[in-house]
């Protein structure tokens, strides 16, 4: 039975870690601070994207791929 408790604790910790990451991401987005280079591919984030979404951390292509991946889940 201890294995079940361990697995549950790991799952709870993972959920908590994901919540903290989401909160940090939201705070960053609300602050309006983005990046010059894409977090995914490292290429510069285009000026047009930066103008529309100052808090962007991904270039247009990587953001589109990210959103497509989330839709499939």
Question: How would you summarize the topology of this molecule?
Answer:
Blueprint: H1 2-31, H2 47-52, H3 60-72
Describe this entry's structure for a reader.
By secondary structure, the chain is mainly alpha-helical. It has helices spanning 2-31, 47-52, 60-72. The longest helix is centred in the first third of the chain and has 30 residues, at 2-31.
- Give the overall shape, derived from the CA principal axes: elongated
Question: Which runs of at least 5 residues are low in confidence (pLDDT < 50)?
Answer: none
Structural class: mainly alpha
Q: Please count the beta strands (DSSP E, at least 2 residues each).
A: 0
Calculate the mean pLDDT score and round it: 85
The number of helical segments is 3
Helix content: 55-70%
Share in β-strands: under 5%
Helix and strand succession?
HHH
Query: Largest sheet, described in full?
Result: none
Amino-to-carboxy terminus distance? 32 Å
Our count of domains comes out at: 2
Radius of gyration: 17 Å
């Amino acid at each position: 039975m201890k294995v079940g408790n361990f697995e549950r604790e790991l799952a709870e910790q993972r959920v908590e870690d994901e919540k903290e990451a989401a909160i940090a991401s939201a705070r960053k987005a609300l602050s309006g601070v983005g990046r010059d280079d894409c977090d995914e591919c490292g290429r510069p984030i285009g000026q047009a994207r930066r103008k529309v979404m100052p808090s962007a951390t991904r270039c247009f292509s990587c953001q589109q791929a990210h959103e497509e991946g989330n839709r499939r889940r």
